[in-house]
Amino acid sequence: MAKVLIATDKPFNSEGVKKIRNVLEGANYDVLLCEKYTQKTQLIEAIKGIDAIIIRSDLIDKEIINAADKLKIVVRAGAGYDNVDLESASQRKIVVMNTPGQNANAVAELALGMMVSVARNNFNGSSGTELRGRKLGIHAYGNVGRYVAEIAKGFGMEVYAYDPFVPKDLMEKDGITYIDNAHDLYSTCQYISLHVPLVEKTRKSINYTLLSKMPKNAVLVNTARKEVINEDDMLRIYKESDDFRYISDIAPDCKDEIEKNFAGRFFFTPKKMGAQTTEANINAGVAAARQIINFLEKDDRTYQVNN
Ligand code: 3PG
């Protein structure tokens, strides 16, 4: 019987785990759990003898891959796979997949929720502002960006997007304004919502040049990865403009400095929360289980992200 390990230091909710189990055990797979582990060595032990692994943001590096003696497939139940060493996996002929779109609505709802919160001064009792009529720029128009656009239109926002990989007519069909370069997006929009994946090219790419173009009362919304921000540049922007705000799903490395010097101009979740909904856990987890079965039984490589 093939063994599937669910390895999540931030576990799926119990309903999600139950549904993943149902799919896999119903197809005669053995399901093992390694949840809330605190040491890498626990994962190194747990991965031995495992055929397939379902993870979230869990770090799968060379050492873990080399400890996996039977592993054939890693499925990252979620979108971003910057936590997996693709090269080491490829060297061992281990397939890596993600489950694109499955948790996208949850992340988009968090982005809009944080925007409402910051517009109302984090509900501190003072008078805030509204989102209706404000300009929102979506930086990267993928699965999350599309949901953000849809919800933002419901709020009456003017929605713009920049994504070098998405054609103009597709954005126009969605009723949003196509922008053909990042600089124009940042200079047009009071709110910018980031959805760029973390790759070498995007690391620290949200820099002074872009941020300094933003209009008054700028709000940068980050439900992507903290590493896409150039934090030194962002601190410079904080110092130069007294109204810039940063709201992020997970605190930046420069959290202490922002908290100390820029009270009321930030909001950070205590840990990555975008995909922390029952629905997202079930959708991404069950999709991962099905992808494992389809790969092991039919060599279906849809959603493979390594070569
Ligand atoms: C993703 O890349 O899918 C999101 O960042 C969610 O990550 P998580 O499953 O670790 O919460």
Task: Outline the structure in words.
It contains twelve helices and twelve strands. The protein has helices at residues 14-26, 40-46, 62-67, 86-91, 104-119, 143-154, 168-173, 182-188, 208-211, 231-240, 255-261, 278-298; strands at 3-8, 30-35, 52-55, 73-76, 95-98, 135-139, 158-162, 177-178, 191-194, 219-222, 245-248, 266-268. A seven-stranded parallel beta sheet has the order 8-7-6-9-10-11-12, sandwiched between helices. Helix 1 runs parallel beside helix 12 and helix 5 (104-119) crosses helix 6 (143-154). The model has no long low-confidence stretch (mean pLDDT 98). 3-phosphoglyceric acid binds at residues 10, 56-57, 78-80, 103, 272, 274-275. 3-phosphoglyceric acid binds next to loops.
Give the helix/strand layout.
Layout: E1 3-8, H1 14-26, E2 30-35, H2 40-46, E3 52-55, H3 62-67, E4 73-76, H4 86-91, E5 95-98, H5 104-119, E6 135-139, H6 143-154, E7 158-162, H7 168-173, E8 177-178, H8 182-188, E9 191-194, H9 208-211, E10 219-222, H10 231-240, E11 245-248, H11 255-261, E12 266-268, H12 278-298
Parallel strand pairs: 1-2, 1-3, 3-4, 4-5, 6-7, 6-9, 7-8, 9-10, 10-11, 11-12
Helix pairs in contact: 1-12, 5-6
Bound molecules: 3-phosphoglyceric acid.
3-phosphoglyceric acid (3PG) is lined by residues 10, 56-57, 78-80, 103, 272, 274-275.
Based on secondary structure, the structural category is alpha/beta
Beginning-to-end CA distance, first to last residue: 27 Å
The topology string of helices and strands comes to EHEHEHEHEHEHEHEHEHEHEHEH
Largest pleated sheet? 7 strands, parallel
Unreliable stretches: none
Strand content: 15-25%
What small molecules are bound in this structure?
Answer: 3-phosphoglyceric acid
Rg measurement, Å: 20 Å
How many β strands by DSSP?
12
Q: Percent of residues in helical segments? A: 25-40%
Q: What's the total helix number?
A: 12
Q: Major sheet: order of its strands? A: 8-7-6-9-10-11-12
What would you call the shape? elongated
Residue-averaged pLDDT: 98
